[in-house]
Every structure is written in structure tokens, then in C-alpha cells.
Amino acid sequence: xxxxxxxxxxxxxxxxxxxxxxxxxxxxxxxxxxxxxxxxxxxxxxxxxxxxxxxxxxxxxxxxxxxxxxxxxxxxxxxxxxxxxxxxxxxxxxxxxxxxxxxxxxxxxxxxxxxxxxxxxxxxxxxxxxxxxxxxxxxxxxxxxxxxxxxxxxxxxxxxxxxxxxxxxxxxxxxxxxxxxxxxxxxxxxxxxxxxxxxxxxxxxxxxxxxxxxxxxxxxxxxxxxxxxxxxxxxxxxxxxxxxxxxxxxxxxxxxxxxxxxxxxxxxxxxxxxxxxxxxxxxxxxxxxxxxxxxxxxxxxxxxxxxxxxxxxxxxxxxxxxxxxxxxxxxxxxxxxxxxxxxxxxxxxxxxxxxxxxxxxxxxxxxxxxxxxxxxxxxxxxxxxxxxxxxxxxxxxxxxxxxxxxxxxxxxxxxxxxxxxxxxxxxxxxxxxxxxxxxxxxxxxxxxxxxxxxxxxxxxxxxxxxxxxxxxxxxxxxxxxxxxxxxxxxxxxxxxxxxxxxxxxxxxxxxxxxxxxxxxxxxxxxxxxxxxxxxxxxxxxxxxxxxxxxxxxxxxxxxxxxxxxxxxxxxxxxxxxxxxxxxxxxxxxxxxxxxxxxxxxxxxxxxxxxxxxxxxxxxxxxxxxxxxxxxxxxxxxxxxxxxxxxxxxxxxxxxxxxxxxxxxxxxxxxxxxxxxxxxx
Length: 680
What we know:
membrane; transmembrane; Immunoglobulin-like; 11 helices; Rossmann fold; 37 strands; 680 residues; 8-stranded mixed sheet; alpha/beta; Class_I_gatase-like; 5-stranded parallel sheet; Membrane protein; transmembrane helix; elongated
């Protein structure tokens, strides 16, 4: 039971203070004049002023409330390193017993798990959330069991009591890690790009400096080993060999005694892009569709075009010397012998043998294609003539033979069943609305893939691989009708764009391909094949274990599956002879960027709260009670602040000075003062 005196004035306090001032002035005047009853009159005035103040006697029935201690236990990935789980479990048991022995104490246990999105250890956020659910007047302290490597130390934390860190780990821990300090997201194919790497030793390393072995693997190939200095930034030049995503894995062998090997590996994913597409366009003669090819290629700013057009055939007999048939001397020898390898694509548009390009030049073009180049032939009537380029060294690479027959009839190009699965022509919707073409060269014995058919379902577009290169044959010179919008036109631009990219060996247009799209720890596995069926894909995890996943068909020639990776790292995929690699998770997980236990990160948070950092390897500290504002940690002990909170069960009030008693007392003192002054 608690007794309290309160005041409930009958008039405003300014009135009471004014009356008090007037009374004091009157008493001083009476004292100055020597009135004998001034003391009794003063008592009468004091009683009246007290009555106006309305004193109230209040009695409270209170129930004391227990103190609340919040214990935040860090269970993130870095807390699972060597020895730390045992330290944490032992500290939890001892701390639970110590807090249970403390009278009037409740404990709120808070678990801090790994954050989503590689956000690291969000210790202060977990504590702030726990504080929001508790009355601040009862919180006696906060204790954190952690390695101190938190990633939200900059978050404001308003605590009414001290906070302490019980530090896991050992003073002699050391670790080696690989840091990728600079890695571009994109790089130009065939041009060197520099990556900046650093090998660092942290903690009580056995020796400073020295050298370490670094293994580098590109795209899942066998790693190459290099020896590099420790603690020094070094630049690693690399050249990407293909477009699309290139996965590069860097790894350090685990050293005896180091804390973990999880930060010894780094994955870098760089997208390879082409700087410029160098195209050589050879037009055999002017025709209605000739400028269509030129305009199409020149419309793309990424294309460097060299256009070689025969405007006047050399067999024309008008007495003009051959060396004067062009405005400038065209460098045919330089283009077709010396610099042919500089081109990404060579297009022959209605070209026929006229003696301008000797057979040795065309033979060099065939060798160029066999060695990895790309050749596209847009055939006109001359392809079926005696001067056809098929009757040249190019016949070794062309995917079909002309029958010498030119079909002059209207037909609508159609995508074949195989073409519906091939990435060059799959998804070209609206074939029923395409405009018709009016001429086609009949082909025999096509090799490779027939993706489009024309009149009488004869081959119209044929693709084939020759040696290391690729060749395409379009058996019509009327594709330009689509660009002119004849009978509604058609997807000429998209078709030719895909065709050029397929010939450039862009990964997204490979007809036999296996790849994965990663998002965090999940990946979407995609398989494209013309085989008609895809078997299960074998996934090899970073630890060497394998999983087989069944693929489901999503479109003609396309299958996919989804997989949740058990850990971050490099995953290898294999199906039907196709292989791929994918990196899941961050290149360097935040939890393993810094692994040595330290109290320095939380020091700016603990110091204003008078808390402390104590290592668990030195023993479990004892608990003490400390007053608010006093140091709350010392050697071997941590302090909690008793809050003395309570709950009011009932309240009763009554007047301390009843009105009748105040009036009686005031009257008594007034009469007594009057009588005293009267006797005098």
C-alpha cells in the first residue's frame, strides 16, 4: 500500500498564489506595527489557503512487475564456424541458469537467422523488433550472443538499459579470403578485360605476406593454377571467347588451420557482347531487292558494312578498259585474301561467276567458312544458271544443289515442322497472313536443316554447319517484297536478324543448347534441342553430389525445369552431350566477407549504453545490478539495471482537510488572535 498526498484546488492556482501574496503582505504589515496576534492570524490564513488548495489523501494498492532481459542469439552462417556453435550453446545454458536465479526477471530469447537477399547479420533490427513488443519501463538490459560481425550497426537503437556483447570465437582465429575488387558485368568478345583480385589474411595469421595458389576455371573447364602474392592487388587480364554469359570461378586451396574455406571461392559472371558486326555484302548485279539488303544492314548502328556491287558486267563490249570499270580500284585482293578473317559474315546477293572474283578468292571464302566464318547466299535466277557460284569452290560448303529450274509462281513462305523448333524461325507467328513471294530456285539434296519451304513445299531456307563455320542458303531473291509491304509483308527484319545472330554463334540462338537462369539460390534450367525429346538433366552441386531433374516441354523444341540450390557456388549441368555451368548466390556471401570475431563493429552502439564486450573463451561473466547511468560492465561481470516497475491494482482518495474542519480551525485562530489583541 502506497500513501500519496495530492492537491485538487477549489480555485485556479493563480488565485491561490495571489491570495497568499496578499496574506503575506498583510502579515508583514502587522509584524511591522507590532500587532500581538499576527501569528494566530497567520495560522488562520494558512488554514484557509490550504483548504483552497484541496489536499487529497491517495492510497494505491501496487503489484511489483518483473524486469525483462532480452537475449539475442546470432544463428547466422558465420556463427556456425569452428567452435562457435559449442560456445554459443554453453553460454546459452549458463546464461539461462543465471537469469533464472535473478529474482523478478523474465527473459525474451530472440533468434537472429540469415537475412534474405544476402543482407548479412541483422542483429540490431531483431533487437529493435523485440523491444517494440515490450514495455520500455521493464527492460533491464540486452545481451547479444554473437561473433560481432553484424551488418546493421548503423541502425539507431534507443535502449533504456545497458546492452552487452558476449563474443564467440577465439583470439587465435585466422582466415584467408579471396576478394574480387573489380569485375565488369559486360565485356567485348575478343578484347582483353581486366579483373582486380586480392588475397587477404585476417586475424592471427601464421605469417604475414607470402604467396598463395589461385585456381582459375572458365565455364567449367579444368582449372589453371597460378601463384600470387598475399595482401597485394593484382590485375588479371582475360579475353572472352563467346557471347552471352561467361562464368569464371576463382578458388584458393584451403590452408591448414584457417577458419573456413567458404570465402576461398569467388564466382564472376560476365556477359560477352560484340562490339561491331563486320559484314561484307557482295551484290552480283543491280536488282529490285539489292538496296533492301544494304538498307537493312545499314539501319543497325552496330554493323560495319563493306558493300561490293557489280554495276556493269565486264563482258559488255564498249571499248572501256577493265581497269576503268569502277569509280575507284576495289581492293578485292585485300578483302578476299588478306583481311577476309576480319569479317563476321559474308553475304552473296545474286552473285554469279563473271571472272571478277577468281576461283582462288572463292576457294578462300570456302576455307574461311570451314575455319569458323559465316556465309549467307541469297539466290536469284543466276544460281540456277551455268555461271552459278555453286559451280565454283563454294560448292564444298553450300547446303543444297540447284536443279537449274527457276519456279516463277506465287507462293506463301511457310515454316517447316523442324523450323517451328529451331530458334531462327520458332515463334514467327502469323504465317497465314504473310505476303507471297513470286520466284524460287529449286534445290536438290539439301543438307542440314530446312527451316522454311516455298512453292510445292520445296526447300526455301536451308541452314548447315560446315567445319567450324556456318552457311545459310535462301533460295529466292524476293524477300524484299516483305520489306515493301507486298500483300501485308512479313517478318523480314526479325528473320534476317535471327539468321545473322545464329551465324554469329550467339548462344541464345543455338538449336542445341543447355543453360540456366539464376535468381538467388534458385535457377531455371532450359534445354533446346531438335531431337524431339529431352532426357533428365544432371545437376552437379558444389560439394560434388548430383541430382537428376526431369524436364517438361514448354514449346516446340524447348524444355525446362526449376531447381533450388542447397548452397551458393558453381553448379554444373549436363544433358544429351550438352553441358553448362551456373553460379548461384552472391559472388562473395556477406556472412563470410569478415569472419574473425570482433567487438569493434558494435562498439559505437555499446559505449553510449555503458555496456561491454566480453569473450566467451575467457568464461561466462557474472550478473550484477547497477544503477541507471553507471558503468554496467567490468572484468568478468556485466550489469543489469533494476527497473522497479509496478502495476496499480486499486486507488482510493479522500480529502485530507474536510471543509468543516478547515472552517472551524480558521475561526478558532481568528478569534484567538482577536482576543489576544483585545487583552493588550
